[in-house]
Design brief:
pyruvate-formate lyase- activating enzyme, 466 residues, binds 5'-deoxyadenosine, binds iron/sulfur cluster, OB fold (Dihydrolipoamide Acetyltransferase, E2P), disordered N terminus
Length: 466
């Protein structure tokens, strides 16, 4: 029997803490205290931070990006590569001095990095000025943690992976007013051997379709024009739930919401990218013609060691099927260079796959061993220097492909959402495939769709509104 593990409204308890904290803060501070949220990592973290900000505003904090002004600082961290972790340690060290300047300051660390016991232990021992450390599945309990610490509790360390429930109703304060993130699922069950995500974000679990639709509808009503559905593996949306709504069905339901807006989504796992999904992208006029389809490697041997559950041939067939159905689809990817045991021959397979697919853009990473992941225990004889050379070779190839793409795009017209001001009379927007185009236009166009013809390229596309 299918179980409904998807929904349990438990935020009510935190609402009580929010009210209590709000009252306490008015007793402690004469003017509203300020909070600074510092985010590392992926869009899921950016979205989580928007919820942290929602809770902080609900408790009466005013948001600031200036750490020296803050009465509460929280680092929402990423653990996917070592570099991201090192940056966090560098940053949290600053709290010591900030606390000297403002003894009432409270500092917290949360997110994927904080979820690891070894990191929590290190913070406990070496960073005594960090007050609160909590993991990914209890982030909605921020009001409770702040309340308890303000009331004089000892330092708080809360890493429990609760039983996978999704907490609905957490307030959100979105960073943008016309582009927004909409999480549809959390966690990951794929256990790619290099990846820490399944260990720090827990099992895959989907929000109820009604919750997602209601939030999407509210976003459209509030003026959002560009909504990105988020999940580690959006294609497996709904697995384990009894409602029978697949990701493709969910896309159709959101597409049916009245209004002028674009739907994007990330990330798709190639093994779960179905013909039903490709047809849906083709048939739904609001769905962006873009697939982010991480391949990670072009070598079957390495794909197997990575536990990716597809091979080169089936990946290329999928690309072919997508392009046959949707000729203007933009395809982007992630690639890891230097997975343990990868040889130059394997790497050449990646180069040849990249040449064959001709991605619109690529996100490339040098393999970074992650604690407790199976790949971290595999022999890794190739030096970092050598991996760096392979990495540069891949970048150079992608640069050549990108210049080819540029030539082909000049003269084409795209519908873009004006989303940034570049200078007094120049604004920019993104195409369906996420390339940025700059063109003449004033602030009043922000948040509007315009048709732009690409006229040239210097560092970024240049165009004119037609
Ligand atoms: N080392 C390097 N890159 C990694 N990624 C995930 N884990 C690692 C790791 N241990 C990359 C993958 C993934 C992207 C989000 O980060 O390419 O798709
Ligand atoms: Fe990590 Fe693989 Fe899950 Fe992506 S699909 S989050 S790479 S385990």
């Amino acid at each position: 029997m299918l179980s409904d593990i998807c929904y349990k409204p438990v935020f009510a308890e935190q609402e009580v803490y929010m009210r209590r904290t709000a009252k306490l803060l008015t007793e402690i501070y004469d003017i509203p205290p300020k909070a600074c949220v510092i985010t590392f990592g992926c869009q899921q973290n950016v979205s989580d931070s928007e919820h942290l900000k929602g809770m902080l505003c609900g408790m009466g904090y005013i948001l600031t990006s200036d750490e020296s002004q803050a009465d509460f600082i929280i680092f929402n961290t990423c653990a996917v590569r070592e570099h991201a972790q090192d940056r966090v340690y560098g940053n949290i060290g600053k709290i010591k001095q900030l606390k000297k300047d403002n003894p009432k300051l409270i500092a917290a660390v949360c997110g994927c990095m904080a979820q690891q016991q070894s990191v929590a232990d290190k913070i406990k021992k070496s960073y005594p000025y960090i007050d609160i450390v909590f993991g990914t599945q209890v982030f909605h309990r921020l009001p409770e943690f702040i309340y308890k610490r303000l009331k004089g509790s000892k330092r708080i360390f809360e890493l429990s992976l609760e039983n996978g429930d999704i907490v609905e109703g957490v307030p959100v304060k979105r960073d943008g007013s016309f582009k927004g993130w909409l999480p549809i699922m959390y966690g990951c069950d794929n256990f790619c051997t290099y990846c820490i995500v399944p260990y720090v974000r827990g099992r895959e679990r989907s929000r109820e379709p009604e919750e997602i639709i209601a939030e999407a509808r509210a976003m459209v009503e509030a003026g959002y024009k560009d909504i990105t559905l988020l999940g580690q593996n959006v294609n497996s949306y709904g697995k384990g739930c009894s409602h029978g709504v697949t990701f493709a069905k969910l896309l159709r339901m959101i597409n049916d919401i009245e209004g002028n807006f674009v739907i994007r989504f990330m990330t798709s796992h190639p093994k779960d990218c179905t013909a039903e999904l490709l047809d849906t992208i083709k048939e739904c006029n609001k769905v962006s013609r873009h697939l982010h389809l991480p391949v990670q490697s072009g070598s079957d041997r390495i794909l197997k060691l990575m536990n990716r559950k597809y091979d080169r041939k089936s990946y290329l067939e999928l690309i072919e099927a997508a392009r046959q159905r949707i000729p203007d689809i933009s395809i982007t990817s992630d690639i890891i260079v230097g997975f343990p045991g990868e040889t130059y021959e394997d790497f050449k397979q990646t180069l040849s796959l990249v040449k064959e697919v001709k991605y619109s853009s690529l996100f490339t990473f040098i393999y970074s061993p992650r604690e407790n992941s199976p790949a971290a225990a595999m022999a890794d004889p190739v030096s970092r220097q050598e991996k760096g050379r392979w990495f540069d070779e891949l970048l150079q190839l992608q640069d050549e492909i990108a210049s080819e793409n540029v030539k082909q795009n000049i003269g084409k017209t795209y519908r873009v959402l004006c989303d940034s001001v570049e200078s007094e009379d120049v604004i920019s927007g993104h195409t369906n495939g996420t390339a940025s185009i700059e063109f003449k236009g004033g602030n009043e166009l922000l948040g509007q769709f315009v048709n732009v013809k690409i006229t040239g390229y210097t560092n970024t596309y240049k165009g004119v509104i037609i």
